[in-house]
Design a protein that fits this description.
This protein is mostly helical and 465 residues long. 60% of the residues lie in helices and 1% in strands.
């Protein structure tokens, strides 16, 4: 997942090298993810023990059980996101960062920015219309879990259209340069033949392609995992090490999904969480999209490495101590994966540049999520063991999982190619080569050291959305 650009309070305008060995400051403070986790856990406990809480307060709860429905799942996303927004504003004061592009002391007269705002609204509504057209055309989006996403987006769409008007009018009066990619797109639509910035339009459309694709996906998977965690009986969770491990892993994935969902929703300039640039390289999009439905190559696809396979609970059944050890290892790996998402706070997003993250697990490696996720698959699936087909199927599964890991290595490289246009990422990359645990381990293992990267004089971060 692309680790994104610099902002005032937590982002540094570091030089490409850091000779003093000090880790570049992170775009997001650790507190953002922590309060988001606290909000999520608090709501999860309320939802799970709602009947008991109602009884304690003397509220007639009737025959209703735990609050495990899809609307409750949406509420859990709000419970996760609201504390992160409040922390970002009142503690980190991100709205004051120069990288927002906002001058809060400036309030242009309405007449100066009205035309700009109306042009931007045309561009924004047209963009939303294109996304809605894609959703409506692709039957895939109206089946299975995606049906919930579509129904939810249908419900909020009129409100978004309504709120976008005062928001745009209010924001443009304070923007240092309001004529961004959205404006350029709107100008191209309503004033054909007038000069426009094609690169800014391309950035605008790429950014919204990311937001449109991944927001629908994240919303589709929120209710299922939430419901399972809220309703499973405690006795079942504690029945054996395998079930305890699975519940804990699912809980850690719930954290990842909720914080990521908040990140895709809150791409707002006043929160300094806007998309600076969306990855401009086609191969980066291919590498990312093949990991997600409907393009996924893994589960059920040509790189499905679990044919005639099973998981660790099956292979280690009857070996209590091994189940405990395996469960602990998998929980730790999944915890690193969720920690990597938490580190982003409200800025998580694939294929985008929203601020360079250097704290949390990014102190140890530039790609903790990819490394931990792939290790989880190897340890959890044990692809060299199969229930049928003998060594041929086992070898095939090992090769296929190796190819899956190769896809994630490819993703990491395409993301770095994008981010290395930013001096802040160059500084972090160079610091990691010398000081981060994983790069140093591989340097010692191979006996090779990779040279420091220096930013080319003409390199640019790209347009700011």
């Amino acid at each position: 997942m692309a680790k994104s650009a610099p902002s005032d309070a937590h982002e540094s305008a570091s030089a490409p090298t850091a000779p003093d060995g000090v880790r570049p400051r992170s775009a997001v403070s650790a507190g953002v993810g922590i309060v988001g986790l606290a909000g999520l856990v608090s709501y999860l406990l309320i939802a799970r023990f709602a009947p008991d809480i109602a009884a304690f307060l003397g509220i007639d709860w009737g025959t209703r059980g735990a609050m495990n429905g899809p609307n409750s799942a949406v509420a859990s996303v709000l419970a996760c996101g609201l504390p992160m927004v409040l922390w970002s504003i009142f503690v980190d004061k991100v709205h004051r960062n120069p990288s927002t592009g906002i001058d809060w002391g400036q309030r242009r007269p309405w007449r100066e920015t009205l035309d700009i705002s109306l042009t931007k609204l045309a561009g924004m509504w047209a963009t939303w219309g294109l996304i809605a057209l894609i959703y409506a055309t692709m039957r895939y989006y109206w089946e299975g879990n995606y049906a919930f996403s579509m129904n939810l987006l249908e419900t909020v769409a009129p409100w978004l259209l309504l709120v976008s008007v005062p928001y745009m009018l209010w924001l443009d009066r304070r923007m240092v340069e309001p004529r961004d990619g959205c404006y350029q797109f709107g100008r191209w639509l309503i004033a054909p033949g007038q000069p426009v910035d094609g690169k800014a339009i391309g950035h605008h459309l790429r950014a919204w392609a990311v937001k449109g694709f991944f927001t629908a996906f994240m919303l589709s998977i929120v209710p299922g995992n939430f419901s399972a965690l809220v309703t499973v009986p405690l006795s079942e969770i504690l029945a054996n090490p395998y079930k305890t491990g699975i519940w804990t892993i699912n809980f850690l994935y719930l954290i990842d999904v909720h914080i990521a969902t908040v990140g895709y929703i809150l791409t707002l300039k006043p929160l300094d969480a806007h998309i600076r640039t969306a990855n401009p390289y086609g191969m980066a999009w291919v590498a990312a999209l093949v990991c997600y439905p409907p393009f996924i190559l893994m589960s059920g696809g040509p790189l499905d490495y679990q044919i005639y396979g099973s998981d660790w609970g099956y292979w280690l059944a009857g070996h209590e101590n091994l189940l405990i050890v395996w469960g602990i290892v998998l929980v730790l790996l999944t915890a690193i994966y969720s920690w990597a998402t938490m580190a982003f706070g409200i800025r998580f997003s694939n294929l985008t540049h929203r601020g360079i993250i250097t704290h949390g697990p990014y102190m140890f490696t530039r790609h903790p999520a990819y490394i931990s996720k792939n290790m989880t698959w190897w340890v959890g699936s044990l692809p060299f063991l199969v229930t049928a087909g003998g060594w041929v199927e086992a070898a095939r599964n090992v090769v296929l999982l190796g190819l899956v890991s190769g896809v994630y290595y490819w993703r990491a490289k395409t993301e770095e190619k994008h981010l290395l246009a930013d001096p802040a990422y160059v500084a972090y990359w160079n610091w990691a080569q010398d000081h981060a645990l994983v790069p140093r381990f591989f340097a010692k293992l191979t006996g090779r050291t990779r040279p420091l990267i220096r930013l080319e004089p003409d390199a640019r971060v790209g347009p700011v959305a």
